[in-house]
Amino acid sequence: MGRHIGDFFSFVALLGAIAAAPARLPAAEAPYHQGKILKILVSSGAGGGTDASARLVSRFISKYVPGNPTTIVQNMPGGGGTIANNYFASEAKPDGLTLMQDSSSGIGNFVRGGPTIKYDPRKFRVIGGIARPGSLLMIRNESRQKITDRSAKAAVVGDTDGIRTWVAMTVWGAEYLGWNLRWIYGYPGSRELQLAIRQGEIDVWATQNAKLVQDLQREGVVQVLVTEENERRKDFPTVPTFLELLGDKKPTGIAWQAYQGWAGAPELDKFLVAPEGTPDHLVKILREAFNRTMKDPEVDKEGDKFFGDGWRPHTGEKIEGVIREHIAIPKEAKDFITKMRQKYNLPVGDQK
Questions:
Q1: Sheet holding 98-103, edge to edge
Q2: Are the beta carbons of 308 and 229 closer than 8 angstroms?
Q3: Whole-angstrom distance, CA of residue 154 vs CA of residue 245
Q4: Do 244 and 158 lie in a common domain?
Q5: Residue 351 pLDDT greater than 50, yes or no
Q6: First to last CA, the chain
Q7: pLDDT, tens only, 183-210
Q8: What confidence tier does 133 reach under pLDDT thresholds 50, 70, 90?
Q9: Which structural domain range is residue 153 located in?
Q10: What are the φ and ψ backbone dihedral angles of 127, each rounded to 5 degrees?
Q11: How many Cβ atoms from other residues are within 10 Å of residue 14's Cβ?
């Protein structure tokens, strides 16, 4: 019996030692993005609004992504966003580490169609979007009379690719208001277009960047004709909307659906996407980080410097819906867009 008592006390001592030992819990799993690089591919060259959007987000989003990854930005210009979109659709891994900063031009290219389009923007996972106030269509002061004088030499509209959303205003202006215009395109970006209108190489150009417009106004180079917003811009209250300018000459039916299909929704400006197939939990992390980034007071201040007053963020869910609605315009409206582009010697692709 003594041996059993001894064993009992040994067992109790063992239990006491176990209880006194510090508890060893499983190590917490490190956040997925910790120690990794988050790359943002930009579908345009440096210096424009798409690039500015990417750089604004890249400076701050790491602060709100668990694990605080390093962020880098890489520009991939060409084809109004087609080159970057094609690459992103075929090469980007759905691992939450590569995003693309795109713009409404990428959507316009898809709607326009053609054999070079190898992507479908409806398949991307939208993280969030930035919408600036509507484009301001400018004309050089000495060219103002040309636009309504058919006997004069046509005022020259300059653009990167001839398909930007604001170009719709010039085409419908020529068609329904009798504007005397011709179009040239192929400029690399906003910096080159600003220089071109300053030097008189082109007469007409549009941008959403209030600072660029105000600089040209201060220099006495341009006046603003119209804005593509549905309402007048608060920072340019005397500038009419295109709808106001059309007045009773505004077309209806398919012609107006086509205009809206080209001009796009106000929310559809600059947006950040992840590849098709990116897991829901990673999309959620990135969307939450984007939304928190957009609420950062420093981002608000820096955004005003980049875009001027009036810019606003939108959630990924909202932009995904806007993209689907925009792409779903009727075939007759797409055909009308093609017809207008052919008439005014602008790029045309095979319609879907």
A1: 70-75, 37-42, 98-103, 270-274, 125-131, 312-315
A2: no
A3: 20
A4: yes
A5: no
A6: 93
A7: 999 998 888 999 999 999 999 999 988 8
A8: confident
A9: 142-264
A10: -90, -40
A11: 10
Q: Which of 36, 95, 48, 57 is nearest to 75 (CA)?
A: 48
Q: Closest Cα to residue 88, out of 98, 77, 79? A: 98
Q: How confident is the model at residue 329 (pLDDT cuts 50, 70, 90)?
A: confident
Q: Is residue 220 part of a domain?
A: yes
Which pair of structure tokens corresponds to residue 228? 């593509």
DSSP state of 155: E
Half-sphere exposure of 33 (CA within 13 A, CB side): 23
CA-CA distance, 100 to 286, in Å (whole number)? Answer: 13
Domain presence at residue 231: yes
Q: Which residues are CB-contacts of 344 (< 8 A; sequence separation ≥ 6)?
A: 171, 174, 181, 183
Cβ atoms of residues 258 and 95 within 8 Å: no
Closest CA to 226 of 198, 245, 248: 245
Q: Check which CATH number belongs to the domain holding 116 and give it.
A: 3.40.190.150
- The Cα 339–Cα 352 span in angstroms is 14
- One domain for residues 163 and 238: yes
Same domain, 289 and 247: no
Strands 270-274 and 136-140: unpaired
Last residue of a domain, one of 264, 284, 307: 264
Residue in 274, 317, 279 with CA at minimum distance from that of residue 88: 274
